[in-house]
Prior knowledge:
The protein has helices spanning 18-21, 46-50, 59-71, 86-98, 115-120, 137-144, 149-164, 180-193, 223-235, and strands at 4-13, 28-33, 55-58, 77-80, 105-108, 127-128, 170-174, 198-202, 241-243. By secondary structure, it is an alpha/beta fold. It has one domain: TIM Barrel (Alpha-Beta Barrel). The strands form 2 sheets. Strands 3-1-2-4-5-6 form a 6-stranded mixed sheet. It is globular.
Amino acid sequence: MPNKIKIAWYGKHFGEEPPLVGDENRGAGGIFFSGCNLKCVFCQNWQISQTGMGKEYSVEELADIMLELEKREVLNIDLVTPTNWWPQIIDAIKLAKSRGMKLPIVWNSNAYERAEIIKKLDGLVDIYLPDFKYGDAEIAKKYSNAVNYPEIAEAAIREMLKQVGAQNLIVRHLILPNNLDNSFKALKIISRIDKNIQVSLMRQYYPAHQAKKFPEINQRVTDAEFTKVFDYMCELGLLNGWTQAENCEKVMLPDFTKDKPFDF
């Protein structure tokens, strides 16, 4: 049914980077789409991404959801894992805008998407929030069944940067235990794209879904591992963004303020 979109949940969401959620009253207007083009063995939202959990909505209903979230005074429309539904989402954004929606649109993806798709979003998306999961192609295939992930993700992020600039682009990277070379390679690619990109370095990994089948990732990231990745990121000159430091003393200062979170 080409006019249908499957959504698992929508509402005020406070789990994004500081400038995307504002204060405790606003939050991002999160819309979590069902399905994913990656099959990560450690996915923390595997019920949504891999079991098809959710309800079907029409393009018109998705536009209604965006307008409803705007009335609830969210800071933006945060499209989470949108890639599989990009044609319908484009139509819904256009429809919502034609009906008066003013909120910025956040494209919150895994970056495993063709640059040609990102080009179709030019002028519709205000903020890009991609994960750069893998700098190592073999690891991407092993854990996410993704072929040529670094090459595809780099091309997508370059197109995102071209459209909105470094100010409106945040690239996330999740550190995996016992896979520091993967993180080093991913950060190296990001620095090659543009050292001014905001990087969100995440250490929220925990063994979820099928991670127990892979002993090397069936554990949490240690402070020592996080520190090594953080230090390397700084050596590369990637100095804008955030970290989830937990017990580690090293915390990056945000490049944004809540008063002026993005350059529109």
